[in-house]
Amino acid sequence: MEENKNIQQINIELTQEVSEGEYANFVVVTHSPAEFVMDFTKILPGVTKARVHSRVIMAPQHAKAFLAALGDNIKRFEKKNGEISAPAQDGFGDYPVTPPEGSLPN
After folding, report:
1. 96, 103 in Cβ contact below 8 A?
2. Is 29:2 a contact under the CB 8 Å cutoff?
3. Residue 77 belongs to a domain
4. Could you tell me if residue 30 is inside a domain?
5. In a domain, 101, yes or no
């Protein structure tokens, strides 16, 4: 097996504030020719207004790589923990609760 010498190690710093994370159960995705914008929020029962807690902006190539990485991690999670049950359609608008065929890596 040939070793790839072009791999670069990146040290990622995680501050205490960011390490606490932010809960989100709803995301609005919009896009332009140059970027994808994901606004993460949480919808609470009985509350009619939600505030965006985090906005992530990615180039289209990075958004597609993110989709592949998320799909791979979901498959590994389900292999270890069992299938994730799909939530009710409420809150997901026109989007299917299961991704379209071929959008996740096999």
Report:
1. no
2. no
3. yes
4. yes
5. no
Query: Which domain range does residue 28 map to?
Result: 22-81
Buried b (16+ CB within 10 A) or exposed e, 17-44: eeeeeeebeeeeeeeeeeebebbbbeee
Number of domains in the chain: 1
Q: Each residue of 48-63: b (16+ CB within 10 Å) or e?
A: eeeeeeeeeeeeeeeb
Q: In this model, does residue 91 exceed pLDDT 90? A: no
Q: What percent of the chain has pLDDT over 90?
A: 60
pTM recorded for the entire structure: 0.71
pLDDT of residue 59: 98
Taken in order 43, 44, 49, 50, the sign of the CA dihedral is negative
